[in-house]
Amino acid sequence: MTGTLVLDPLIPLVLLYGVAGLALLSLILAVWRRLPGWWLRGLAGLALLAAIANPSIQQEDREPLSDIVMMVVDESASQRIGDRSSQNAEAVANIEAEIARQPNTELRTVTLGDGEGDLGTTLMTALSEALAEEPQARVAGIILVTDGRLHDIERTPRLPAPMHTLLTGQPDDWDRRLIVENAPAFAILGEEVNLTLRIEDQGAAPEATSVPLSVSIDGDAPLTVQVPVGEDIQLPITLPHGGMNVLQFSVPEVEGELTNRNNAAVVQINGVRDRLRVLLVSGEPHPGERTWRNLLKSDSSVDLVHFTILRPPEKQDGVPVNELSLIAFPTRELFLEKINDFDLIIFDRYRRRGILPSAYLDNIRSYVEQGGAVLISSGPEYGSAESIYRSPLGQILPGAPTARVFEEGFVPQITDLGARHPVTEGLDELSPNPDGEGPGWGRWFRLVDVLVPENAMTVMSGLDERPLLTLNRVGEGRVALIASDHSWLWDRGYEGGGPQLELLRRLAHWMMKEPELEEEALWVEPTGQTMRIIRRTLSLDMGDVTVTHPDGTETTLRLEEVSPGRFETLWEAPEIGLYRLNDGEESAVIALGPAAPREFEQTIADSVLLDPLVDSTRGGVIPISAGNIDIRTVREGRPAAGRGWIGITPRDAFRTAEINITPLLPAWAFLLLAALLMVGAWLREGRR
C-alpha cells in the first residue's frame, strides 16, 4: 500500500495560478507595509488556495509482477550438425535450473526451427515477435542459444534488457564447402561455357592443397578431377542436350568435418541452339517445294541451304549430268566434307539421278548413325525404280516402298501409338472437327504404300490405315518418313487446312533430340517445394518412381495417367536440396533451392554478428562447451556478464489492484481555517 498526494482543482489550473498570484501579491504588500499579521494573512491565503486545489491522498494497492527472461533456442538445420543438438539441450536445462532459483522470475522459451524456403536462420525475427507479446517493463534479460549464424540481423528489435549469447560448437570444428561463384542460366549447345567454382575450408581444417572434384550431368556417371583448395577454378562445360541440364559438383566428405551438406552444388543451365542448320534437297519442282522453303525460312533460328534439281526427269536431250543445274552442285563439299555441320537433312521428292553417288548416300547413312537426322518427304518417285530407298540409305529408312501409289482423297489420322507420341500427341485438338468425329483438318490426295519394320513407329496413317508418318531411331541418330507429298495442302488452307507448321516443328525438334519431345522421358516441374513428377512413355502402363532425398532416404510414388502416354503425380518435398528420381528405365535429377541451403553456407559457430548487440546491452558471449553458467542479478547499467556467469536486471514491476482517493480536508474545513486566520490577522493588526 502506497500513498500519494494528488490535486483535483475546483477551477481550471490557469485560474488557480492567477489566484495564487494575487495571494502572493497581497502577502508582499502586507510585508512591505509591515503589518504585524502578515504571516496570518499568508496562512489564510494558503488555506484558501488549498480549498480550491482540493488536495487528496491517493492510496494504491499494488501486486508485484514477476520479471521475464526471454530465451530463444535456435534449432535450425545448422544446429543439428555435430553435437550441437545435445549442447542445445544442456544449455536449455542449465538456464531453466538457474531461472528457477531466481525469486519472482519467469522464463519464456521460444524455439526457432527451419522456415519455408531458403531464408536461413531468422533469429531476430523470432526475438522481435516474442518481445512484442511481453510488456517491455518486465523483461529482465534475453538469452540466445545459437551458433551465431543468423540471416536477419537487420530485423533486430529494441533491446530492453541485457542480451547474452550461449554459443554452440567446439573450438576445433572445421568444415569444407563447395561454392559456385559464377554460372550462366543459358548456354548455346556445342559451345563451351566457363563456370567458376571454389573449394573453401573453414575453421580448424587440416592442411590440404587439392581435393577430388566430381562433375555429373543429369545424374550420369561423374567425371573426377583434382582441384586446388582455396582458389577460384575455371571449369569449361559443354552441354550435351537442349533444354534444362542439371550439373552436380561434389567433393568427398572427409572424416572430422561438420557436415557434407555443403560439399555439393547444383547448377541448372538451359541449353539452347544458336541456329538450326538444315539442308533441303528438292528432287524436282512441285507445289509443296515452296511451302517447305517458306516454312523453314520463316523461322529466324534456321539456317537453310536449299538445292533443287531443276531438270524434269522426262526431259532426255543428252545434256551431261554435271551441267543440269544453274550452278555446280557442290555435292562433295556438302555430303562429304561438311555434312556434320548440318543438324537436319531433308530430301523432298528426291529421286536417284546419278547426281549423288552411292558413296555420298552411304556417308549420309553413317552421318545418321553417328547422331544426325534425315527426313524424307516422299512422292510417287519413292515407289519407283529411282527411289532413294534403293540406295545405301534404304538400310536406315523406316519404310520400304511396295511400288503402289494411291491417288485418292483421305483424311490423315493419328494412330493409337501416335496419340501417345509427343510429335503427334494432341495434334488433332489444334483442328477440332465441328461434327465431333475425328480431326477437323483437310484431306490429302496421294499416299505411297510402304512396309514398316517392327522397330519403327507409325504415328500417323492414311488411306485404309496405311502408314503415313513413320519415325525411327538409328544408332545415335533419327530418321522420319512422310509417305506423301501433299502436306502443303494444309498450309494452303485446303478444306480448312491443318496444323502443318506445328507438325513439322515438333518433327524437327524430335529429330534434334529436344528433351520436351522425347517419347520416353521423366522430368519434374517444381513449384516451391511441390514437385509435379511427369513420365511420358509409349507403354500402356508404368511402374513406380523412386525418389531419393538429399539425405539418402527414399520415397516410392505411384503416377496416374492423365492423358495418353502421360503419367503424373504431385508430391510435397520435405526439404530443399537435390532429389534423384528413377523408375527403372528413366532417371532425372532436380534441385529444389540450392543443393547446399543458406543454413550451410557458414557452419562454424561464430558470434561476430551478435557481438555489437551484446556489447550494447553490456551482456556476454559464453561458449556452451565451457560448461554450465550461473545467473546473477545486477543493477541496470552495470556489467551483466563475467567469467562463467551472466546477469539479469530486476524490474520491480507491479500491477495496481485498487486505488483509494481520500480528501486531505473537506473544502469547508479549509474555508473555516482561512476565515479564522483572517480574523486572527484582523485582531492582531487592530491592536496597533
Report on this model:
With 688 residues, this protein is of the alpha/beta class. Helix content is 20%, strand content 34%. The protein has an 8-stranded mixed β-sheet with strand order 16-15-17-18-24-23-22-20. Strand 35 and strand 36 form a beta hairpin. Helix 6 packs parallel to helix 7. The mean pLDDT is 85.
Radius of gyration: 45 Å
Structural class: alpha/beta
User: Strand arrangement, largest sheet?
Assistant: 16-15-17-18-24-23-22-20
Q: How would you characterize the largest beta sheet?
A: 8 strands, mixed
Percentage beta strand: 25-35%
Supply database-style keywords:
688 residues, 37 strands, 5-stranded parallel sheet, alpha/beta, 8-stranded mixed sheet
In a nutshell, what does this entry contain?
The protein is of the alpha/beta class. The protein contains eleven helices and 37 strands. The strands form nine sheets. Strands 16-15-17-18-24-23-22-20 form an eight-stranded mixed sheet.
